[in-house]
Design goal:
The protein is mainly α. It is built from 17 helices and 5 strands. The chain has 3 domains: about 5-65, no CATH class; about 75-175; about 190-410, hpI Integrase, Chain A (Orthogonal Bundle). About 45% of the residues lie in helices and about 5% in strands. A 3-stranded antiparallel β-sheet has the order 3-4-5. Strands 1-2 form a two-stranded antiparallel ribbon. It starts with 12 loop residues before the first strand and ends in a 27-residue tail after the last helix.
Length: about 425
């Protein structure tokens, strides 16, 4: 383009007229005859601009939609927990991932929801948390002091996270504290005198039990070391064989809704002691045919998937009749003067027997369902036993456990299999 000679530039005058509403009425250009072509170009351009200016402007939809904004629905406590869980698992903060969430966190969040409802977490008030705290302190099914403290800590962790994410304004941390020092409950193992009193009683000798669970649960506890509810929820399908070894599966898969285990490491498959087979456990399971092997045990209405309350009450009464307990135990079995010899003592007794037989820590922990240091149970399948230890070895080690007691076979019992009653209050 050639340079512009500014000496030859002539001002061009454009006159305009407008209506009262501001729209252009007319315009004129002061031009010389030899500027006809230039004037035509200018007029064409101005006409186009005027027409476009007089047309309604079409803005993007996001600019012309002036309907009121709808705020995102506040998430409930359980929905917020799902977000919290996803972040913790993705970040690798929970070593066993989904299992850590399922066993170590979700039960406590569910307890909170059962107390105050699954309301939007932003609507939770200090009164709600105070109600939950009171329930944790006073509930008959709240467990040991350490379990109650853990319940408050797990719920508190969720609210702290929600506050950090600006989902809530108050994390109520002061209301989630457990007062005082937590002392861990201890259970004394049963000695030979205790075992003879329990298993050589008239009820065992002459078939005096009313329910099959009253006969089998103490024996299963003694020879498996399993927790009471782990045994109460057993089904016929939990009795099987692995590598030719009769086994009991203490697992909870997604197809069985009633299974509840304490921790991730509780998931296990253990050999069936030959003494249990000799006493008739396999024949008894076959007679039940399907479902839970102790259908007479009701599920607690206060705690989902807990079938142990009635079984625990019956065993406590039976144990006292047999004279087994500690001198400090009160007749009411209150929390202050509770016997250190209880159903859980079967577990302590088996673990002690395995230790005396020089069974290594890994095998002993696996049989008892304790966490094995240095491992992550979640990377194993089938309760992790199938890949960690071979069943013939575990069976041989469990067979080292022997008791100098005259056990009576189940065939002497006269009770019939009973169906499950309604849920227990």
């Amino acid at each position: 383009m050639p340079p512009i000679d500014r000496n030859k530039i002539r001002p061009l005058t454009i006159e305009t007229a407008f209506y009262e509403n501001g729209q252009l009425q007319a315009f004129s250009i002061d031009a010389k005859p030899d500027e006809k072509d230039l004037t035509g170009t200018i007029l064409g351009g101005l006409s186009t601009l005027i027409r476009e200016a007089q047309q309604p402007r079409q803005l993007p939809k996001t600019f012309i939609d002036r309907s009121p904004l709808r705020p995102q629905a506040a998430k409930t406590i359980l929905q917020t927990f799902e977000d919290y869980k996803a972040e913790k698992i993705k970040g690798g903060y929970w070593k066993d991932g989904e299992d850590t969430a399922r066993y170590d966190h979700l039960p406590h969040i569910r307890a909170l929801v059962e107390t105050i409802g699954d309301k939007p977490i932003s609507d939770v008030t200090a009164d709600d948390i105070a109600t939950f705290q009171s329930k944790v302190f006073t509930s008959d099914t709240g467990g040991s002091p350490s379990t109650r403290k853990q319940r408050l800590l797990r719920a508190c962790a969720l609210f702290r996270w929600a506050a950090e994410k600006a989902i809530i304004a108050n994390n109520f941390s002061g209301l989630f504290r457990y007062p005082g020092k937590v002392t861990h409950k201890t259970y004394v193992q049963l000695d030979e005198t205790d075992l003879k009193a329990l298993f050589e009683s008239d009820e065992y000798k002459h078939g005096g039990f009313s329910y099959a669970s009253e006969y089998w649960l103490p024996l299963l506890g003694l020879f498996t070391g399993a927790r009471l509810n782990e045994l109460c929820q057993l089904t016929c399908g939990d009795f099987s064989e692995h590598s030719g070894v009769p086994t009991i599966s203490l697992l909870d898969d997604n197809t069985v809704s009633h299974k509840r285990l304490k921790t991730t490491s509780s998931r296990r498959i253990i050999p069936l002691h030959s003494k249990l087979i000799e006493l008739g456990i396999i024949d008894y399971v076959r007679s039940v045919k399907s479902g839970r092997i102790f259908p007479e045990l009701p599920e607690s209405s206060a705690r989902a998937n807990d079938f142990s309350k009635e079984a625990g009450r019956r065993f406590t009464e039976y144990r006292r009749r047999c004279g087994v307990g500690t001198a400090s135990e009160s007749a009411e079995g209150d929390a202050i003067r509770r016997s250190e010899k209880a159903f859980h003592s079967f577990r302590s007794t088996l673990i002690s027997k395995l230790r005396l037989a020089n069974i290594n820590d890994g095998h002993r922990n696996r049989l008892a369902g304790h966490e094995i240091p240095g491992t992550q149970d979640s990377v194993y399948t089938g309760g992790d036993v199938a890949l960690m230890f071979d069943f013939p070895t575990l069976q041989a080690e469990l067979e080292c456990v022997k008791y100098d007691v005259a056990f009576q076979p189940f065939s002497k019992q006269k009770m019939k299999v009973r169906r499950a009653p309604n849920r227990q209050q």
